[in-house]
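Morning run. Coffee first, then this:
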Amino acid sequence: MDNSWDFGSAWNDALEIGRPVRELKPRKNMWAGEIGGSFIDRYLKMNAVPATNPPNPRSQRKFEAGNTMEWLLKMVLKRAGILQETQTWLRYQYPSLLEVTGKLDFQAGGEVDWEKSKDAVLGFELPEFFSRAMQQIVQHLSEQYPNGLKSIILECKSCSSFMYDKYEKFGADKRHQSQIYHYLKAKDMDEGHVVYVSRDDLRLLELGLFNPNEEVEKFYKGDIEKMTHYINANEKPPLEKEVIFDDVQFRFSQNFKVGYSNYISMLYGLENQFAYECKWKKTVGKWNRVFSRCASGAKMTKLNLDVIADIKKLFPNMDELVDLAKLSGTKLEEEDE
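And here it is:
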């Protein structure tokens, strides 16, 4: 009798089952994690329109990988004796605007029995690397903060090394800042940190945020005001632009709000995210190469001029964008073919 078995297929089948699908119901509240996302997608979800493009198995796996990183951080905080709260539902509402709800990842800090924390770490069964790292973390915190730690909120986000490098260079994503800002407002606390963990190499980046913060408040409240208008007026928001321009990096890029839309076939007539990437990847690369040449003052070829004409169909203000890039002094590298 052949009793050979395959662990890989069991693993993959288990991960592809995914989470139980939450029953769609019309709602008048927004999730904190939706702030800064697609208005049209949110409008459809809040009106209980079934997704035409739910997360595929790869997306589900990335989501579970993020949960694993969050669990690991939770274990470190717990064994260090500084985990105060986790997965607490928090609500905040401006007068006459939609309520925002969400679950914070962690609240950590407080007075700590460091000797007890060190013993707890030793008794926790982990791979050698994590065990050493956890002991070092507790040692570091006990030496730096012998009298305890200020209580702060931590929002954990796992990401690719590519996105990690971007956050390290340009700062936290506005969506993530708004999410943690929501928790700070709901708890009337003054400090939170967005924690990025690279899934590729376990680098960790921690970026602080304080309440109040005029810039983040403007983004957070402005988003809620817009969504409140669309819901109360029963007005369908416009489609997202398929290509956007980043005026910090001075780069065109595909719009993740389209690529990751759960309604991409319904709204944009594209079969899935892969079809969207195939449509725009080469074009966006070509646009960025020509834009870099414009910003550097290079002489334009006929082919360059044709590309500029194509860009101006979607971005009629391209000349202004080029001037901004020149004024910024940012050195733009031409992308490879």
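The mean pLDDT is 90. Good start to the day.
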